[in-house]
Amino acid sequence: TTPTQKLLVNGKDFTLDADPNMPVLWALRDILGFTGTKFGCGAGLCGACTIHVDGSPMRGCLTTLKQVQGKQVTTIEGLEAQKLKQAWLTHNVPQCGYCQAGQLMSAAALLKTTATPTDAQIDDAMSGNICRCGTYPRIKAAIKSVSE
Ligand code: FES
Question: CB of 23 closer than 6 A to ligand 1?
Fold first, then answer.
């Protein structure tokens, strides 16, 4: 029999029959239907799968169910950063859009710890999120527009 795993996502408890070593990304997308979090590379290189674990940005493709037992997982569906999301729209950030959930999760995590990030802090926090459309200047402008 498959072991039972508990998962707390966006404030709701879920119980699933899954291997404890399953990546959280798989459980979110394929079992629970939280498809806002994207699969890009599956190897920790692109940031499309970025989620928050107890408020910190993590790679959903490299984080296992076992590692998040008893912790709070937040996905783009549960992200409450309204000002940031509005700035994304105002600055027309997305092009194809595929990487943008991950971009928003990283940006929101940065602004939670650093209300007024410098350019270097933005570059550092966002360096793990790749965008093939090259929306980086708009991402930066959107982040700066909500920093206090
Ligand atoms: Fe996880 Fe690319 S899918 S970093």
Answer: no
